[in-house]
Amino acid sequence: MLLRGFSSRLGQVRASGTPSVARPTPALFRRNPSSSLLGSFSVLAPFGEGFLAGRPQMPGLLRAAATEAAPAPAEETFTYQAEVDRLMDIIVNSLYSNREVFLRELVSNASDALDKARFLSVTDPSVMAGREELEIRISADKDKGTLTIEDSGIGMSREQLLSNLGTIARSGTRKFMEAMAAKGDSNLIGQFGVGFYSAFLVSDRVRVQSKNPEDPKQWVWEAAAGSHQYTIREDTASDLVRGTRITLFLKEDAAEMADPVRITRLIKQYSQFIAFPIKVYSPKKEPRKVVDTEATNRKQEAADKKAAEKGEPSKPVDPVMKTEYDEVWDWRLENENKPIWTRSPKDVSETAYNDFFKATFGEFLDPLAHVHFNVEGTIEFSAILYLPGMAPFEQQNMMQRSKSIKLYVKRVFISDEFDEDLMPRYLSFVKGVVDSSDLPLNVSREILQESRIVRVIRKQLVRRSIEMMEELASKENGEDYKTFWDAFGRNIKYGVVEDTENREKLSKLLRFSSSKSEDNLTSLDEYVSRMKPKQKSIYYMAADSVQAARAAPFVEAMVAKGIEVLYLTEPIDEACVTNLAKYGDKDIQYDLVDVSKEGVTLDEEGEEEKAAAEAAAKELQPVVDFLKKSLGERVEKVAVSNRLLDSPCALVTSKFGWSANMERIMRSQAMGDARAMEYMRGRKIMEINPKHDIISGIKTLLQEKDEDRARDLAELLYETSLITSGFQVDSPKDYASKVFTLMKIALGYDILSEVEEQQAQAAAATPTVTSAASSTGAASASPRPAATPVDAEVVSEDDPWKKA
């Protein structure tokens, strides 16, 4: 019987023309037998109370009911109960945003009817008499515009047709209607125990033919869309041994539902894991070998001609065959895939898991890992989760729905658009199926968000996904995890930022390049195992590439002393480690320190080194003061550093501002906020290398009172350090001009003489230019003097700059 959602809705039906007289429902049918029966027979418990409600439980029950019921006329017309009338209006006009779900509803109802027939046959084998097969058959007729769904389930008697299709006795459904009317929410997904009425989404008229094995008669229920009445009569066809046949007379705008190809697609989408076979009457091209007359004649002519040339008698040739395809209509099974999640994991082979993954999600590579689990207890559900073998092409857009988690309720597909409810965004790459018998069939996004069951399911899915990744990371060869990290590493880093509850677990999955492992990625646990004895921090350098991080002045002394530095080369890396902040176990926690920030000290320093650093800082105090005075507000302060080796200076940022790398990333944002940029930009601090020749040279110039040259060097030193520290130069043109000047000096040009000559010519041309401007109203520019070459100092005969 296809009418799963109404088996317990027993009530009163008003007969047309007699509005004041209610047709009494027999007492045996008014009583819900499910509670007492379920209490007596524990085997019935899995089916729930609604399983037996309104159904003939024993032959005697139906015979007693038939005795009480009055003889039925040839055809009777009834008026819907008011609630049903309103419910149909809601369904047709606002409930379902996608009317394709009507087929899922009717097939699911048919599956329930088959379940009940199979269950009753255990105690009463006569139920299956005349038709042993338990199946669903669907056929369409394009010419007549009809679609027929037939099952060999338990069927319905006349009284059950009345109670199931004319009344709503349960207050829950009435409350649902009232809530729908009050909220006007049309974005609802799934079925609401009113699946049968979804047939009117695509039908002008619906006919239900049903035969119960305990009722000698076959009955017809028929109603039109928009009508307030329906009819019930005895069916003269009597061609059903047992079960229900629903015939939909399709609307003009739903004619495509009579296409077997469309029906097959909908079955594979929604109902491919139904336990009973679903057969669709559809065409198939069958090959057939026939004689190709034209080709055979050409072959015969060629053979005759060849025989004539040789003077031999002609012989018949073998006929040339060709393949033609006949369109053969037959019942074809469309739900061959079996729900492997309902089986025990130990009974499913690795090949079966891989094949299911490829078939269900349209993948062509085997998954890297999978986990199959069943949760039992107060909440029960089954799930299979997979780590794909490659990243999807559209994974750059994390806001896009991935449709990776398919939600089933009792093996009936509900939707694949619940990703954010069942999985956090950073795990959107995990694919899988979830089947729960505890979820209500009225599944909407609002219900999912408020459901305690869904919160439990989500927590389990996240935990099992992380455990699956941890197991993959622990494998010895590590190649599979390297493949996984290349594809989905950014998602894990995003998870560290977003998922505070699982941040510690996710941090163990992180992988980065480092100064000791540039070619192979390293984990934080491996970094900790290689730390120096006195090292108390995990150091990292953020840049746009490993080469840039390696060349940064901040890491020079650390790398030289054997202190490992992590190289963060992806835009999300710095945000990831900033949110992580600390790493370690319960006994010891290590701070993650950005080497491009101020206040970084080397843990390996001894007392002698600290004393030498203090002496150097005292000695260079005049240089520090001069540089701060020359650079003004562009730097917050100038300090002597002990972490520079080859570079004369570096620009570090304050602890609580953006680093140079983060400033570069934020500047490239299309929707960046200029006010946030100004607020979050870190203050620059210049750290100088006391052992570098340039710093010593500036100190010498200051001792010689040559502050002009020292100031020029300070400007060039600052702008160069902007570049080496990862910042952008404020005026590239001015900086390029200074570099060109240095190039001229290298080429042997007398820059001082050239400047003096330009100043003299400019002073001499000023009166002439002023006079000309006053008389003609236009200004003339003085010609640019040519550079005067001078002999450069030649180091050797092979010097490339020596003039011939």
Automatic annotation (TrEMBL):
Positions with a binding annotation for ATP: 105, 109, 151, 156, 164, 171-172, 191-196, 244, 445
InterPro entries attached to this UniProt entry: HATPase_C_sf, HATPase_dom, Heat_shock_protein_90_CS, HSP90_C, Hsp90_fam, Hsp90_N, Ribosomal_Su5_D2-typ_SF
Alphabetized Gene3D superfamilies for the sequence: 3.30.230.80, 3.40.50.11260, Heat shock protein 90, C-terminal domain (1.20.120.790), Histidine kinase-like ATPase, C-terminal domain (3.30.565.10)
Disordered: annotated span: 287-319, 761-804
PROSITE patterns according to UniProt: HSP90
Keywords attached to this entry: ATP-binding, Chaperone, Nucleotide-binding
Domain Histidine kinase/HSP90-like ATPase: 98-254
Gene Ontology molecular functions: ATP binding; ATP hydrolysis activity; ATP-dependent protein folding chaperone; unfolded protein binding
Amino acid composition bias (Low complexity), ranges on this chain: 761-789
CDD domains: HATPase_Hsp90-like
Alphabetized Pfam families for the sequence: HATPase_c, HSP90
Protein name: Histidine kinase/HSP90-like ATPase domain-containing protein
UniProt similarity note: Belongs to the heat shock protein 90 family.
